[in-house]
Design goal:
heterodimer, A: alpha/beta, DHBP synthase, 3 domains, 5-stranded mixed beta sheet, about 35% helix, B: mainly alpha, 2 helices, about 0% strand
Chain lengths: ~600, ~50
């Protein structure tokens, strides 16, 4: 038996993953345990969890892999500072103490952290370092159902690379070409995230969600000034407009003058039509680049399969466009496409590339539905709920499904906590808040009363795989909610002349389809297909809901409030339930109603987490 | 010591010996800065380093 522990840490989204004989056993992000969103500290709790889940002590682990190479990153930093000198002095003076004190000695630090898990742990050449984009590429290819594929990774920056193209074949991944820092599609998108007043590294989703409310009025301005895009989709950013390589902000005054406004201050400034148009423009540019890259790769390598990873692969609208154009027969996207997934990718890279072990290739991918996190037995759940003072009923599985479907059909918002927690940023029916998509007020209510977030943000539908093409313009598996497609024409409600004239957020109040709560203003939806093989209980719940309502779709949003990591334990779920206007909570076979809970257990939850 | 060997090997593989003098200067002057500081936390918008 060979065990490999993969770790990503010290930048953002720390995580740990474990492989045993190449099989993915467990993976989790540190933020879920520490309740600190995008926690970048050493993932002590996540490592403890994956070890416990696999019944291993750290000293019994054969290999440990870190997801990137610190020396190479340091090389990039020094060379960047030399290249931009004396401009980057401010950043240089802030960065060097961090590096000279800690980051340069990552290996030693890592060993010290690891020893905290197990005193008997000895290093003995057990620790490896993978390259950042190799980790992404490996996470995109090895768990995929393909024996051969083109792999495209794109994010902010790793060591030098910001985008890479690789070819995956059987148990090997070969990187073919790279785009290097400071030219980065991820950083370009993040620059606009910053400019529109959202938090870099987590607000990118908001920018994508805001895009359909605007018009791509600034697309030409971006393409003429900020970025030079070649026919094959490769690009160079004009550094005159950016400040991330040398300063402490993403953009500079020249950038502000180009668009005519200062960056939005999220505390004082409202989102206006200008920001929506900016969002639409950058989204449009991103989609164009991704499409161009996809087309040229297909032409160059003539393979039918595409694998995607890296933060940019979480841009499901762009992914949907690649799929829609039918450039590739099949696309597979790593559900933990961000840096957390690097922990898994680095471990897989070691197992398959370095140790030359063969892959098992099935029709189904190896991610187990991405349900790789902690789970709680019925007795553990009952004990925890009892200890908190919760009032609950224990029901049989069929009664749980019956009651939940009934509650949902009445318009209730239901907290759904079942089985193993998801790995990756999306809730996929294990730690989810569910609602009835047919309700006209559901989107607004969930946003404002349950999630405490901006009312413009869309919700995603979960749909039975067998019914997808009846409701959406898509007939593919999308188990990880990473593809966007339109709601079918016959389910759409056409806007009248007056409604068509509406701008921006006003469009939100128009009922757009039979499943209004999950239909964005441009009739698109970020779809999760639900499969019996990977999440039986959620599948059955959807079946039951369909039986009652004729609708095989549910609103599925992550079980958390704005700025909070997705809930991990039954206690987290109960706290969130009591701090929001959720009506029901279902944990395992325990069924809770809000009206039956003691009022003193209610929490002020809204202000607990910082806006992202 | 391990660190120095590993870092030298890294420079050898990457053929970037010109980084060495920069690093030596950094270590000499940086040592002073670091010793005078509590913790090294960077207030960055995007942690590219």
């Amino acid at each position: 038996m060979t065990s490999i522990l993969g770790i990503s840490a010290f930048y953002h989204d720390s995580a740990a993953s474990i492989l045993i004989d190449g099989k993915i056993i467990a993976a989790a992000q540190e933020e879920r345990f520490t309740r600190k969103k995008h926690d970048s500290n050493y993932p002590f709790n996540a490592v403890e969890f994956v070890l416990k889940y696999s019944n291993l002590k750290l000293s019994e682990i054969d290999h440990i892999v870190f997801y990137e190479k610190p020396f190479l990153k340091f090389e990039r930093l020094l060379e960047t500072y030399v290249a931009f000198a004396p401009r980057g002095f401010v950043q240089f003076s802030k960065a060097m103490p961090v590096w000279l004190k800690e980051k340069l000695f990552q290996k030693k630090n890592l060993i010290n952290f690891l020893k905290k898990h197990d005193k008997n742990f000895e290093e003995k050449n057990k620790i490896f370092f993978s390259e950042h984009h190799m980790s992404h590429a490996a996470s995109a290819f090895f768990p995929s159902p393909f024996d051969e594929a083109i792999i495209l990774t794109a994010d902010g920056v790793g060591e030098w690379a910001t985008s890479t193209v690789a070819i995956g074949k059987e148990n090997n991944v070969e990187i073919k070409k790279e785009i290097h820092f400071p030219h980065s599609l991820g950083l370009l998108y993040s620059a606009f995230t910053y400019y529109t007043g959202f938090k870099v590294n987590s607000g990118e989703y908001k920018l994508m969600g805001l895009a359909p409310y605007g018009e791509p009025k600034y697309k030409n301005l971006i393409e003429d000034n900020l970025i030079h895009i070649k026919d094959d989709g490769s690009f160079r950013l004009n550094q005159d407009y950016f400040n991330y390589a040398t300063g402490l902000t993403m953009t500079n005054n020249k950038f502000n003058s180009l668009f005519g406004e200062k960056p939005r201050n999220s505390k004082t400034d409202k989102i206006t039509q200008f920001h929506m148009d900016i969002a639409s423009s950058i989204q449009n540019v991103t989609e164009d680049i991704m499409l161009k890259i996809a087309k040229s790769l297909k032409q160059e390598y003539n393979l039918n399969n595409l694998c995607l990873a890296g933060g940019v692969a979480l841009n499901c609208v762009a992914n949907g466009k690649i799929l829609e154009k039918k450039i590739f027969d099949n696309i597979w996207i790593q559900p933990a496409a961000g840096d957390a997934g690097g922990s898994l990718g680095s471990a897989l890279a070691l197992w398959h590339i370095e140790k030359k072990n063969k892959r098992i290739i099935n029709n189904i991918d190896q991610m187990k539905g991405s349900y790789l996190g902690p789970e709680y037995s019925q007795s553990e759940i009952e004990k925890k709920l009892k200890d908190i003072g919760a009032n609950y009923e224990i029901l049989s599985e069929s009664d749980i499904l019956e009651r939940s479907a009934e509650d949902l059909s009445k318009g209730n918002a239901v907290g759904w906590f079942q089985g193993r927690m998801e790995f990756g940023p999306r809730a996929l029916g294990a730690r989810s808040i569910l609602g009835d998509p047919r309700s006209a007020s559901m989107q607004k209510n969930l946003n404002l009363k349950v999630k405490y977030r901006e009312s413009f943000r869309p919700f995603a539908p979960s749909v039975l795989r067998e019914d997808i093409s009846e409701w959406f313009d898509l007939n593919e598996d999308s188990p990880y909610m990473l593809l966007v497609a339109n709601v079918n024409k016959n389910k759409q409600i056409e806007m009248n002349k007056e409604q068509k004239k509406l701008f921006g957020i006003d469009k939100l109040n128009v009922r757009r389809s039979k499943i209004a709560a999950v239909t964005h203003v441009d009739y698109s939806a970020r779809i999760q297909t639900v499969h019996e093989e990977t999440n039986k209980k959620f599948f059955r719940l959807l079946k039951k809901f369909k039986e009652k309502t004729g609708c095989p779709v549910l609103v599925n949003t992550s079980f958390n409030v704005r700025g909070e990591p997705i809930v991990n334990t039954p206690e987290d779920a109960f706290n969130c339930f009591m701090g929001t206007e959720l009506d029901n909570l279902v944990i395992g076979n325990c069924y809770l109603k809000k009206e039956n809970q003691k009022t003193e257990l209610k929490k002020d939850y809204k202000s607990k987490f910082e806006l992202d | 010591m391990d660190f120095l060997i590993e870092f030298f090997e890294f420079l050898k593989v990457r053929k970037k010996y010109w980084l060495l003098p920069i690093l030596i200067v950094l270590v000499l002057f940086g040592g002073l800065i670091i010793l005078s500081q509590g913790s090294a936390i960077a207030p960055f918008i995007y942690t590219i380093f």
